[in-house]
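Reviewers asked in the last cycle whether our approach scales beyond single polypeptides. To address this, we selected a multi-component target totalling 527 residues and predicted its structure end to end. The input consisted of the following lines:
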Amino acid sequence: MAKKRLSRFQWGVIKTMVFVVCLLPFAVITWDALNDLLGADPIQTLHFRTGDWTLRFLLITLTMTPIQRLLKTPVPIRFRRMFGLFTFFYASLHLLVWLVLDQSFSLDNMIEDVPESPYIILGLAAYIMLMLLAVTSTAGMMRRLGRKWDSLHKLVYVIAIAGVVHFFWLTKLDYQEPIIYAIALSALLAFRWRKFKAMFSFSNG
Amino acid sequence: MLIKKPALLTESHTTPKQDFEKSRPLISASRRQFMAQSSTVMLVGGLAPSTLWAGNKIENYSKSKFSLKEKPTPYEYVTTYNNFYEFGTSKGDPAVRAHLLKTKPWSVTVEGEVGKPGVYDLEDILKRQQLEERIYRLRCVEAWSMVVPWIGFSLADLIKQMEPTSKAKYVEFTTLYDPEQMPGQNRRTLKWPYTEGLRMDEAMNPLTLMATGLYGEQMPNQNGAPLRLIVPWKYGFKSIKSIVKIRLIEQMPKTSWNESAKNEYGFYANVNPQVPHPRWSQSRERIIGASLFTPKRKTEMFNGYGEQVASMYKDMNLKTFF
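The resulting structure, written as structure tokens, was:
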């Protein structure tokens, strides 16, 4: 691939640009919310839009390694953490919509709703795991955790599966959209087939 | 009332569909189409009682004592946020595609345990009914609700005119099946045609409405034109749209959502905050058209219509017969 090395400054510019692009969905959603453009069922619209972007960023994050391998370039890995953190950002918005708008911050409401809604329990579990990955995503944490960091961050596969199942679980009848996410995730997991095989045979042996 | 196909109202008399399609996707398209269709009827003359239809406005209806005192959900939302899978599974699909549905002429087949079976022209059925405006809350099984000023007539009156036999224990309703007019039927999401049913006492309850309009106008296609059921104490999927057949029968009929997931959608489907859907809570509902920070509304038993309907279920375990 391109052999010419980019300067620190050039990398900074590129990263900033990618960062701004990742914020665009948030900007559009905020604009729509402020201008009453969320339609008849604004809470539901926000649930779906923040949920969709969470899953999309999660899949983008998981695409970085396959691209790196296929194109034999280390470039994608430089963006992996940023995409992972944007996954956490949109997941946090998703949770906030539920907490503030859907549940009105009421513990009574949550005590009533959560046990009756298995997909919410799964979503919350996935969010807690994602938070764990977000707080351990810094260079310092990587150094401190050493080899444990690798094992911990394999949780991303569990989170991804939980996220897609969460979508299936709340869907009424028409599974077209969750199926698309499931196919994309399956492809990304299939790419890592050897790694999983090694992981499991190691833990079994 | 007897089978009379109005010979005058043939294809050539109706305004060509393509006239509307050019400027379509907005809500107003279907409204324009209605105006045009209704005025065609008036031109052809004498088919619809001219006192009933003027443009797409419905005149000569009384106000019902059953109406809620609440402010109805804005027209825009009532007509653009629809679950009508015959036109697609997204809420916006029906408003975009329902112009494909041709509602005039429209006939309704009446069969089963009745003294007067037959194929009736809707215009003939309507001539004999008293129209009323009833402002009801519609509570969807998806945990949202809206308040709609329906116009329609009592199903009980219609059933009496059919002269039910003593064997008539249930009423089964069927929606039109025509994938050309209802493109959502090209996908096997539900088993088509859509069917729904009521127990006889539910059908005869004074709250049960056959609706032909809303907001003082003829029913927009996306809301189930030209004839739909409204059962306000049950989840919205019971209130079947674009009805072409009414059958009185002895056995409990099969119903579409129940067939698609028996453990999730029961035959009764009474609004009940104490019985959750297997995958989500029914204790609260989002209010359609409300601002973002409006808290969800507490769902009421029988959607607030308990006084009129609770006695029908007093000996039933509502957790079993959900």
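Residues 11-313 of chain B form a domain with the Sulfite Oxidase; Chain A, domain 2 fold (CATH 3.90.420.10). We regard this as preliminary and will revisit it once experimental data from Aim 1 are available.
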